[in-house]
Amino acid sequence: MIKNLEKWSQPRRVKSSALNFPSKDYLLPEPYGVCLQISPWNYPFQLSLATLIGAVAAGNTVVLKPSEHAPKTADLLAELIAKAFNPEHVTVVNGDASAAKELLDLRWDHIIFTGSTHIGKVIAKAAAEHLTPTILELGGKNPCIVDASAPIKLTAKRIVWGKYVNCGQTCIAPDYILVEESVKAPLLKALVEEIKSAYGEDASTAHSYGRIAHQKHFDRLVDLIKGSELVYGGDSESKSRYLGPTLLEVQDTQHPTMAEEIFGPILPVLTYSNESELEPIIDSFERPLGFYIFSKRKKFIKEMFQRYSYGGGVANDTMIQFANDRLPFGGVGHSGMGAYHGQHSFDAFTHFKPFIKRGTWTDPFVRYAPYPTSFNWLKKLLNLI
């Protein structure tokens, strides 16, 4: 941000219109003003600072409300930000949902929220009271399609990484697999092998395997898999909020794990026989934040990426769209609105004012009354320009 800020904050010259000749046309960047940022608990440090940096770089002041479900990180953020900023510039307000409600009752110039679609609707409703612009980074049922041409071992390795990092508590993690029937058995076998390779026979002892962030979420996840026929995992321990990497086969979208975004280390696997079966499954959910395809067929990949609407997509890997700050990160529909990362973060927190400097050395007469009875000559002129 520091390296590029001088360039990004300059007025941006745009091509002028022949109808305004002579003129010089610009977009003038200005900050929105006072921003409210409500951050999530799954990546409580990174997702707080990533958007805060963009808002401050664009010239805004910020009130940050970290999640109460990550209290240690919230306290650390308050301590660090108090050292780095004057309180009139950036300040942290810690508290529970009632504190967030009080903040939302106030008028803001911009609001950014990262979290669930349910709470996103609450934020949007509060913002609408004052016509406040928002960025909503939400989630969804992110499909992961695996066709018969996919390299099974590599596919399994990349799915396991994307699904189980941070114990599945990632908004762009694969939420369910749609695997072509002919390769279902080898894929399931490979997924189990890769889980063991990554986390050992007992993931509860693995240094690289996390825990569920808070008890309410843990209880919800455990309830989701009760009574299910598990392919692998399902072991849990309430005191430490441990839920092991879990695989299960499901027959249709009526299974409890398919009702909403899972946001945990549970991976349902559905099968399909032909490509026509994909559409009714994927379209039965709202537009997702992530969309993943594993295939060697370029035509199939192109068709899938063009056919469906999603926040960000990847072929033959998962979640890596987040790593390139030249790509905007954001959702569409129920998975969110607005986007940020890199220059997109600066732009997201900036209002670009159109501004025209009109020349005075000539003044074409055509726009002033009295007007001619025919403008055919003007149409011909414009066609030549």
Key terms:
385 residues, alpha/beta, Aldehyde Dehydrogenase, Chain A, domain 1, 18 strands, 2 domains, 21% strand
Summed up:
By secondary structure, the protein is an alpha/beta fold.
Indicate the topology:
Blueprint: H1 5-8, E1 12-14, E2 23-31, E3 34-38, H2 46-57, E4 61-65, H3 71-84, E5 90-92, H4 97-104, E6 110-114, H5 117-128, E7 134-137, E8 143-146, H6 152-164, E9 176-180, H7 184-199, H8 215-224, E10 230-232, E11 236-237, E12 242-243, E13 246-249, E14 266-272, H9 278-282, E15 290-294, H10 298-307, E16 312-315, E17 336-337, H11 343-348, E18 350-358, H12 376-384
Parallel strand pairs: 3-4, 3-6, 4-5, 6-7, 8-9, 8-15, 9-14, 13-14, 15-16
Antiparallel strand pairs: 1-2, 2-18, 7-17, 10-13, 11-12
Write a structural description:
The protein has 385 residues and is α/β, with parallel strands linked by helices. The chain folds into 2 domains: 157 residues, Aldehyde Dehydrogenase, Chain A, domain 1 (3-Layer(aba) Sandwich), CATH 3.40.605.10; 181 residues, Aldehyde Dehydrogenase, Chain A, domain 2 (3-Layer(aba) Sandwich). Helices cover 31% and strands 21% of the residues. It has 12 helices and 18 strands. Helix 2 links the parallel strand 3 and strand 4. The chain is globular. The chain starts with a helix and ends with a helix. The relative contact order is 0.15.
